[in-house]
């Protein structure tokens, strides 16, 4: 099994909750993410086989990327340019590892 995807695009009214996340190949996810992150507050998330989530929220021409850590009541995150999001998704390893995102800062909820 690979990743499961969830998303919300307000402009196209396409939504899929995290509870209903569907399997999605990373190459498809890399293509779909820009289609779904069209406007502010649109989001896209991927859940790996270990139920670790990597999610993206659009804010203008930047993306807030984060890995929620419910046990710590917060998320590790950082801003990335919109232009980098597709390549980042396409190159994800088979499992999301916080160590691969060392520049992320912890943000309590």
From TrEMBL:
Superkingdom, natural source: Bacteria
Name used for this protein in its record: Uncharacterized protein
Taxonomic classification: Bacteria, Pseudomonadati, Planctomycetota, Planctomycetia, Planctomycetales
């Amino acid at each position: 099994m690979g990743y499961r995807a969830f998303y919300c695009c307000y402009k196209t009214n396409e939504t899929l909750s995290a509870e209903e996340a569907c399997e999605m190949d990373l190459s498809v996810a890399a293509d779909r993410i820009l289609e779904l992150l069209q406007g502010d507050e649109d989001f896209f998330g991927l859940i790996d086989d270990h139920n670790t989530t990597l999610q993206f929220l659009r804010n203008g021409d930047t993306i807030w990327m984060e890995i929620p850590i419910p046990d710590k009541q917060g998320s590790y995150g950082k801003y990335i340019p919109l232009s980098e999001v597709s390549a980042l998704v396409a190159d994800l390893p088979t499992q999301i590892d916080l160590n691969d995102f060392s520049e992320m800062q912890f943000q309590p909820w």
